[in-house]
Amino acid sequence: MFSFKKKKTKQDALKVIIDKAIDSGKKIVLPEGDDDRVVEAAIKASQLKVCKVAIIGNKIILKDKIPKKVLKDIEIIDVQSESKKREMYARSLYELRKEKGMTEEKAFELMKDPMYYATMMLKLDDVDGIVAGAKYESADVMRPALQIIKSKPEVSKVSSCFIMEMPENSTFGENGMMIFADCGLIQNPTDKELAEITIETAKTADTICGIKPRVAMLSYSTKSDPDIEFEDIQKVKRAFKIVRRKDSSLIVDGELQVDAALVPEVAKAKCKGSTLEGKANILIFPTLDAGNIGYKLVQRIAGTRAIGPVLQGLKKPVNDLSRGCTSDEIVIAMAITALQSKISIKGE
User: Is residue 187 part of a domain?
Assistant: First the structure.
């Protein structure tokens, strides 16, 4: 069980997320019921009342692993025995994807795959979210989500962010957290995509972490000459203007070097008058290279806990796990997914 302290400190910042999700009433499905970490997470999430839980796996084996006092609150789905549901999901998948070359035979075959089965459960509102990736590779989690759930109308590409739980003595971030994006999906975002990542990440900070977004759009320069010809700098400048146009209330600035985004004294020297004043709690990286390197450096050197990737921009929430995840990290992902489902767009 979680070892969160009763007294709220920066170290239990992620307890904020768990607490926000308690009694959410949302049902989250776990397609990897053959993994002991997933089973343990299902039990913990149910006991904590983070969400309603459905788990896909062998019914006989799972009933033996889950304590009887918890079993009544967890829905066990055995794909092999759910013939009526499997047939219904297969026919729905065929109708959804036939113009993309889907055949009835292929649809019925895919419904034997727990990940596709779970995705059809989500598509047809039998669950509110999916958490997977303890055993599945990221591509196998994302493929059915992109094919069936798809992105929100206002988003051209699904992106991701990491919630960074800062060390107890850290002066950075808010409520012990910072958000980094995109560190996991979009390799070289366009200015429009970078603006979308910024807006979606601000929503994540607000709805999931309960912090008021203060967003820095990063570069290797700070407020450079508007006429400078380097395209990578101009891309961030254009993205910043798009964000300001789409959401004038968001506290955001760019392009900024990371020290100007995080250190008030440096901000005064490099970008006096910046709305961030060197107090950013969200960092938007210009490329996947920069984001992935940046979050791993902070994670390893500063001893920061990284939760994610949290997927952003899907119509309904699906979240990918690290294959090295612990059961507690799966529970946190379930809590995040339950909170995301509260703001998801229903249907197409």
Answer: yes
Tokens of 162: 């990491």
Please give the distance of CA 120 from its chain centroid, rounded to a whole number.
20
Q: What percent of the chain has pLDDT over 90?
A: 78
pTM to 2 decimals?
Answer: 0.88
d(CA 190, CA 90): 36
Whether 321 and 134 have beta carbons less than 8 Å apart is answered as: yes
Strand 282-284 to strand 305-312: parallel, antiparallel, or no bridges (unpaired)? unpaired
- Answer yes or no: do 111 and 198 share one domain: no
Q: Which of 335, 304, 62 is nearest to 176 (CA)?
A: 304
| Of 220, 38, 243, residue with least CA distance to 130 | 38
In the block, residue with structure tokens 């649809």: 107
Structural domain total, the chain: 2
Mean pLDDT, residues 285-292 taken together: 96
In-domain check, residue 178: yes
Q: Which residues form the domain of 205?
A: 159-301
Q: Is the peptide bond before 309 cis (omega within 30 degrees of 0)?
A: yes
CA torsion 263-264-265-266 (nearest 10°) is 50
